[in-house]
Amino acid sequence: MAEDLLDEHGRIAKIANNKFNTEKLNLHPVHKIIDKLNWYRSLFGKIQDLPEEQYQLLKKNVSTFFNLKSVVKAVSLPRHLVRISHNTNIFAGRGMPVSYFTTIDDLLAPPLHLVKVNRCNIENEQVLYCSLDEASAYWETKPKYGDIITVSRFVLKDGANSICSVIVPEPFSTENFSNPLRLVYSLIREFFVDVFTLKVDRSRPRDYIFSAMITSEQLFYPIQSVDNIEAIIYPSVQRSGFGDNIAIRNDIFLQKYNFVSAETRFILEEYPDHDPKSNEPTTDQVMASFYSYSYNPETGKISYNFKVDEIFGLFKTFQNPENPQTRIDNGPSIPKNIAFNMSDPEFVIPEYMDEFRHKSTVREDGTEANEDAESINTVIGVVGN
Fold first, then answer.
1. Sequence-ordered strand ranges (E) for 87-188
2. Do the beta carbons of residue 74 and residue 190 sit within 8 Å?
3. Does position 19 have pLDDT exceeding 90, yes or no?
4. pLDDT of 80-89, one tens digit each?
5. Is 239's pLDDT higher than 90?
6. DSSP 328
7. How far is 228 from 296, CA to CA, in rounded Å?
8. Other beta carbons less than 10 A from residue 316's beta carbon
9. Which among 272, 287, 282, 274 has a CA at the least distance from the CA of 337?
10. In three state form, how does the secondary structure of 55-101 look?
11. What is the rounded distance in angstroms from the CA atom of residue 223 to the CA atom of residue 202?
12. Cα–Cα distance measured from residue 215 to residue 377, given in angstroms and rounded to the nearest whole number
């Protein structure tokens, strides 16, 4: 039997006591694996305070320990994704007046020099975070009064797919307690759920290190293979698990998804005590917004109608708290907001946009009912083993 490989704290260094992955699997005793996982749990919420040397040692410790990982794969990538970008914050960071976005890069992951540790990435890794529905995107980004945001939408390309991991709890099974390997996989999966649903103060990004390291080793595995994981679906912590997010490698995202539209919204007050189970956004907004679907994949440019600057300035004035808007509830058939199409009139609409057009149906009483095809057709990724 191989001599136990121990870490700097005297605990087991790896889940499997193997020097090479070509060796016969040699699992450590379950109680030692549990001890190591519980030690990791004891560090939750404390990592941001570690001295740099200890932080780097912990990263190496985590990377070494998980030489076995529990992976549940989605049957396919989600068809529709939603992302919210903060125009207000991004333009302020550039030292520029707030405006609308005109390039696809504005809507994707930030430049490498601005990347911090996050739920699914370590430093210097570009990972794009999206939600599977609009409400979850609002919960994750929490826009506030006076913000200007862009809600961008994407649809899966025909035939596109990736290996996508899904963070879901382990179903109870008596078999897991009789089979040592199954039990270890259950323990790993339980820990993965813990770290991917851990509430983290965003001013303390290093507290994400466990989920960040686990994801980094999966999304950025150094040996290229068709079996490599390229995306991870995980519960929305901000929404108390009532929605899902996806983290996908930024460099492959546009190979998998088509751009649908970028809608510029002007945020008003946040809704108090908003129910996370609700499919409504977390804030009110100016009753008018505008969008463009005019995207040129060759140049990366998003173009608009020539009146866009005038419309942007007009809608921005409606955020003035001294002249608040007043809503009148006209029933569920009347939309709360009107999105104006400010796309480039010269743009040729691609075929994949058809499913996002407004559809009309006729009620039994003969009146016309408009249905938003986008919300009707939104599909959540199906989980499979």
1. 127-131, 148-156, 163-166
2. no
3. no
4. 999 999 999 9
5. yes
6. -
7. 30
8. 16
9. 287
10. HHHHHHHHHHHCCCCCCCEECCCCCEEEEEEEHHHHHHHCCCCCCCC
11. 32
12. 29
- The DSSP secondary structure of 96-133, one letter per residue, reads S------BGGGGSPPPGGG---BTTB-TT--EEEEESS
Mean pLDDT value across the chain: 87
- Specify the 3-state DSSP secondary structure of 229: strand
82/154 Cα distance (integer angstroms):
7
- The predicted model scores a pTM of 0.88
The per-residue pLDDT for range 94-128, each reduced to its tens digit, is 999 999 999 999 999 999 999 999 999 999 999 99
Q: Where are the strands (E) in the chain, listed by range?
A: 73-74, 80-86, 127-131, 148-156, 163-166, 229-235, 244-249, 257-270, 283-285, 288-292, 294-296, 301-303, 338-341, 358-362, 368-372, 383-384
Per the structure block, which two tokens stand in for 378? 């939104």
Cα(255)–Cα(161) distance, rounded to whole angstroms? 10
Which amino acid would we find at residue 66? F
Phi and psi torsions of 133, nearest 5°: -155, 160
- What single letter denotes the amino acid at residue 81? L
Nearest to 67 by CA among 7, 18, 120: 18
Query: Among 235, 208, 218, which Cα is nearest to 43's?
Result: 208
Per-residue confidence (pLDDT) for residue 363, from 0 to 100 = 45
Structure tokens that stand for 341 in this block: 């199409």
| Dihedral sign for Cα atoms in the order 260, 261, 262, 268 | negative
Quick check: 377 and 80 in contact, CB under 8 A? yes
% the chain with pLDDT above 70: 89
Structure tokens at 117: 């540790």
Residue of 1, 379, 295, 28 lying closest to 188 (CA atoms): 28
What DSSP string runs through 330-347?
Answer: --TTS-S-EEEE-B-TTP
Whole-number CA gyration radius for the chain: 24
Buried b (16+ CB within 10 A) or exposed e, 138-169: bbbbebeeebbbbbbbbbbeeeeebbbbbbbe
H helices of 119-179, where?
Answer: 134-141, 175-178
The closest alpha carbon to 214, from 199, 193, 200, belongs to 193
Residue 89 tokens read as 């914050």
Q: What is the pLDDT of residues 264-282, one digit of tens each?
A: 999 999 999 999 999 999 9
Q: State what percent of residues in the chain have pLDDT above 90.
A: 70
